[in-house]
Amino acid sequence: MRRFFTVAAVAAGLVLSPLAAPAAPTAGREGVPHYDHVFVILEENKDYGQIMSPASAPNIAGLAVKYGDAAQFFAEVHPSEANYVALLGGDTFGIHDDDAYYCDPGSTRPFCGGAKAPGYATHRVQVPHLGDQLLAIGLTWKGYYENLPEPGSGAVIAGDPKAANGMRTASLYASKHSGFMNFASVQDDPHRAERIVGFDQLDRDLASGQLPNFALIVPNQCNEMHGLHGDGVPADCDGNTDQDKSLIRRGDAYTGELVRRLQATPAWASKQNMAIIITFDEGSGGSVGGCCGIVPGSVANYGGGHIPTVVITNHGPRGVKDETPYSHYSLLRTLEDAFGVDGYLGHAKDTDAGVRPMVKLFAVGR
User: Fold this and answer.
1) Is 152 helix (H, G, I), strand (E, B) or coil?
2) Residue 304 maps to which CATH number?
């Protein structure tokens, strides 16, 4: 399988820089302990049953058995983009397409193909996101995106400039899978290039131990199980070739390596609490089903299918299968609890709708 990032060696005994530790540690909330570092690896378009089998995805399925399996976790909508936004902002904000992050109703700009449709929602979201909450209490965040052309890039799609075929311009990177770029505070941030970065920066940060408190890690569309089609696309990136089996194997192997690299950091071996979450944006195809803050009958928050979600912690539970219904809103609420930020965003506060923290999967046993 072709690799799109360089595996960086992690020096033994490396001391974490001051940037890697929270500025003002808190005790957590709602039974969720304080976490120093949380990494969310976000994958694409697979149902729970497609992944939770050792025969199809041995790395992810094995991690679910060893650590924590959120066995009733649901997305918010189809297609992809709004689920990324929901995870970070607590709402889909009416988005129910994959148009570019800058699109407004009526826009004629490139990648705004649906902008003239009735009820079209702006894709430039003017509310705070999880990263804003973290910055407000002195904590740090980054979005790591494979094949991002340059730090802070506003590209909508980008390929591999080293390729000699169609992969040079293929949408390996796609901003519809960014999440952070939909928020006006990120689009207007003069420090965006420090926080919206590529996998080359991920390599450097893992090697140096300078880890943010929160990170969203998004592999490219071949390695996150989305798949591509066209000239030069590897057979195991083309989801049409064998009902996604090769695409899943490729993404599973890639994700397993990412997890191993994160577990090789000094932070994982330290007394700090660190979590790695593997989740997906939505279920396969038009799969439906949801919970916890969704609005049945809505166009943008009706339930996007039953998706795999695995919680891996260095000091937390082992061998837990949690059947509690959860959604991306539940995960956002759990992160807000773990970092002790001020309040909850959007549907993350919808306790009466069943949104609750993922306590069983994040509990610390020491």
Assistant:
1) coil
2) 3.40.720.10
